[in-house]
Amino acid sequence: MLAHIVDIFKLRIGLFMALTALAGYAVTPGRMLGSMELALLALVVFGASAAAGAFNQFMERDLDARMPRTADRPFVTGAVGHGVGWLWSIGALLIVSVAAGAGLFNASVAVYLFLGAFFYGVIYTLWLKQRTPLNIVIGGVSGSFAVLAGAAAADPGLSNIALVLAVVLFLWTPPHFWALAIAIRDDYAAAGIPMLPVVKGDAAAARAILASTVILVAVSLVPVTLGAGRLYFVGAVLGGAYFLHRSAVLVREPSRANAMQCFFASLAQLALLMIVAVLDARW
């Protein structure tokens, strides 16, 4: 059952979103939070992300059934019932997370938590995903709100570096998902989802990934001009260089294996960037 919970609520993504929120907090001057408050900040972001992830799986059961990669998800296999009670539980989790964000921190944190879940659950899942190859471009805004929620916990007015990190999350999402989409293009095609590789082909998608990554890496270096230190600079350069390298390899040979390497490189780049943002700002 634990494995089902991890899958349904997409808890791995929730952990990633909590990390980005802590990075947003770390780079924003303002209210100093204790260890317990930081844990609670991570928890409310984690909860809102989990609610959005579960809503996505609940609403996409039929779609997931048409894709080998997702055909073994609990709602698809029947391992977990698909009743309306799940919607009540998901809604309650989101309400508790948003209310806790407002009560423990401020209204801005609550607004960003809600917007992140709304963009992923409604704008991306229900509106964009099956309609346009720009689905993940616009839907990628959802990840940016986690950074803003963390930053708002320190200062609702945010900071320039936090705003740049939010833009980084927005720019990171398309090449990250397009790399995965190349690797599992047949799945998306079978399900009728117009991901970029399905609509334009793998080679065109690989070129879009490289172009997007160039812009992403350039923007990720902007915080250095806003006061970020050497540790951040080194992490941004190393992670960005690796992502660029894997993107260039993918352009030369847009194979499934290279696409997965590029996908993992995107994860490594973002994780490293958020970690060095925290360490550079606080230590």
Per-chain topology:
Layout: H1 2-8, H2 11-26, H3 35-59, H4 61-65, H5 74-77, H6 85-104, H7 107-128, H8 135-139, H9 141-154, H10 160-183, H11 185-191, H12 196-200, H13 202-220, H14 230-252, H15 256-282
Helix pairs in contact: 2-3, 2-9, 2-15, 3-6, 3-7, 6-7, 7-9, 9-10, 10-13, 10-15, 13-14, 14-15
Unreliable segments (pLDDT under 50, ≥5 consecutive)? Answer: none
Q: Specify the overall morphology.
A: flat
Superfamily at the CATH H level of the largest domain? UbiA prenyltransferase
Classify the fold: give the CATH topology of the largest domain: Tetracycline Repressor, domain 2
- What's the number of domains? 2
The CATH architecture classification of the largest domain is Orthogonal Bundle
Computed over alpha carbons, the radius of gyration is: 19 Å
Structural class: mainly alpha
Total beta strands:
0
Helix content: over 70%
**Mean pLDDT metric:** 95
Head-to-tail CA distance between termini? 40 Å
Q: Count the DSSP helices.
A: 15
In short:
This protein is 79% helix and 0% strand.
Polypeptide structure, described:
- There is one protein chain.
- It is built from 15 helices and no strands.
- The protein has helices spanning 2-8, 11-26, 35-59, 61-65, 74-77, 85-104, 107-128, 135-139, 141-154, 160-183, 185-191, 196-200, 202-220, 230-252, 256-282.
- Helix 3 (35-59) packs antiparallel against helix 6 (85-104).
- The longest helix is centred in the C-terminal third of the chain and has 27 residues, at 256-282.
- The model has no long low-confidence stretch (mean pLDDT 95).
